């Protein structure tokens, strides 16, 4: 049976919303968060299993033990589930667990060896993939990662704009540099462009204004971090929204049709 594409332009209602915790922490945290999000009508959940941390010594994700929890969630709730993969073994474990969508994180997109390893492991596999921009503002590196995944035969593809890192603290955790996704889009007008306001903002108060800006620029979707108890989150506590706060934000967003 041919699986229905997620990221093809006529498969979803714009904006496509993907939401879920930065990291999967416990079965209860996962279920309570997913339950809250399903109540808001969200059907694609994100959740970190393997977490690429900048410095060692912080929580690096639960790894494979979280995968059966995802399988249980999918039996109870009508959701598709997206996780980050950073190696061929992550892809293999994720496929075995029936994960629906993979994404390549900003620290992997910078490395052609890593992206190529992931691409090789995806050959002959029919799964939707999202590719985040690299941490540094290098458009070619982002395009190169997309080309490697396309060459592996993946055609259900989206890109995610999550901003670019800085040396000193700035208003944003990661500067949006909107001209980069805009330029990307002029070169790949058919690819779905998703904005990740959570990692650009770094703090909850800034998430709505960034999400609105993305919609004003006609982005196709939003990937937002949501946690049942954000202040207690093991990673990215300052930027996650409760499912209820996410709903309020989504209700206030205005969709516009400004083409670029
Ligand atoms: C994440 O999505 O939680 C994450 C680690 O993101 P990024 O790769 O954008 O830093
Ligand atoms: Mn995060």
UniProtKB/TrEMBL annotation:
The keyword RNA-binding does not apply. It is an enzyme of class 5 (isomerase). GO terms for biological process: chorismate metabolic process. GO terms for molecular function: chorismate mutase activity; transferase activity. Its EC number is 5.4.99.5. The keyword NADP does not apply. Keywords: Coiled coil, Transferase. This is chorismate mutase. It comes from Algoriphagus kandeliae.
